[in-house]
């Protein structure tokens, strides 16, 4: 397991958000965590890079305990991650190029020529090589998400965390983001952890899907088995998004 939660509990604002949560994520997979708003999806994600610390239990990354790490040890663990925040989190006063270059300037000793080459290689991956000089206010929401993704992967992380990557996007743009996430796994071999309420996205990109409810995982399955779940909370969530047992995810069995 590259990421493991061991009996993790977290209380926020007097509410139990995670309740003795156990989960394991394999290297190279796209692990998707789904569920309605407020069930702890983003809280789970933040524990992986210690933006939050468990009240009880441990979070392991590659055999190291990130929930107990300090100083340089914590920095080394965090350097293994890229993080796409829900809104893209681009700096408004920097153009796309400089936003994407920021992690390289802060965390590496690359020369300006090396930075320029690496940034444009990454922008080509997300289809923004012709938009490097534009500012966040000049581009669409979908382009801002792609720029945020480029910034998350520019330093070649082993693991990329995605917080609601398709939130606020139209269906066509959402499927473009899905394709980018899937392509990164296939072409670069990165481990992806995605939290989303968008089941269409989860079924398209996930190797496994976990549903959170009541602070615990109530279902964990491949897409083709997830849609067949008899767990009441899963069945209701599927029905709310008009998803039947038959669909394009069935092609994964062929």
Mean pLDDT: 89
**Number of extended strands:** 10
Number of helices: 9
Low-confidence stretches: none
Percent in strands: 15-25%
Measured between the Cα atoms of the first and last residue, the distance is 27 Å
Strand order of the largest sheet: 6-7-8-3-9-10
- By secondary-structure content and strand pairing, the structural class works out as alpha/beta
Q: How big is the Rg?
A: 18 Å
State the major sheet: 6 strands, mixed
Shape, per Cα inertia axes:
globular
Percent helix: 25-40%
Order of helices and strands: EEEHEEHEHHHEHEHEEHH
Please write out the topology.
Elements lengths: L2 E10 L2 E11 L4 E5 L6 H8 L7 E6 L2 E2 L5 H8 L2 E4 L11 H12 L4 H14 L15 H13 L5 E5 L7 H18 L2 E6 L2 H7 L2 E6 L2 E6 L1 H4 L5 H9 L14
Parallel strand pairs: 3-8, 3-9, 6-7, 7-8
Antiparallel strand pairs: 1-2, 1-4, 4-5, 9-10
Helix pairs in contact: 3-4, 3-5, 4-5
Model description:
- With 254 residues, the chain is an alpha/beta fold.
- Helix content is 37%, strand content 24%.
- A six-stranded mixed sheet has the order 6-7-8-3-9-10, sandwiched between helices.
List keywords for this structure.
254 residues, 4-stranded antiparallel beta sheet, alpha/beta
Concise structural overview:
With 254 residues, this protein is of the alpha/beta class. It has helices at residues 41-48, 71-78, 96-107, 112-125, 141-153, 171-188, 199-205, 223-226, 232-240; strands spanning 3-12, 15-25, 30-34, 56-61, 64-65, 81-84, 159-163, 191-196, 208-213, 216-221.
């Amino acid at each position: 397991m590259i990421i493991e939660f061991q009996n993790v509990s977290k209380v926020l604002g007097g509410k139990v958000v995670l309740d003795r949560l156990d989960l394991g994520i394999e290297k190279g997979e796209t692990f998707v965590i789904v569920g309605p708003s407020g069930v702890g999806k983003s809280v789970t994600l933040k524990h992986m890079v210690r933006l939050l610390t468990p009240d009880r239990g441990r979070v392991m990354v590659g055999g190291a305990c990130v929930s107990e790490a300090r100083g340089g040890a914590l920095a080394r663990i965090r350097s293994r991650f890229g993080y796409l925040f829900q809104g893209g989190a681009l700096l408004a006063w920097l153009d796309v190029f400089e936003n994407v270059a920021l992690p390289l300037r802060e965390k590496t000793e690359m020369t300006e020529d090396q930075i320029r080459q690496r940034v444009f290689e990454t922008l080509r991956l997300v289809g923004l090589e012709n938009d490097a000089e534009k500012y966040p206010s000049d581009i669409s929401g979908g382009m801002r998400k792609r720029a945020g993704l480029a910034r998350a992967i520019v330093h070649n992380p082993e693991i990329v965390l995605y917080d609601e990557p398709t939130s606020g996007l139209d269906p066509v743009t959402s499927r473009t983001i899905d394709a980018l996430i899937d392509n990164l796994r296939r072409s670069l071999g990165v481990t992806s952890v995605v939290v989303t309420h968008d089941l269409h996205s989860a079924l398209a990109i996930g190797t496994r899907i976990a549903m959170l409810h009541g602070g615990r995982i109530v279902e964990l399955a491949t897409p083709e088995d997830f849609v067949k779940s008899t767990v009441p909370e899963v069945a209701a969530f599927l029905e709310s998004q008009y998803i039947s047992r038959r669909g394009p995810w069935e092609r994964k069995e062929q």
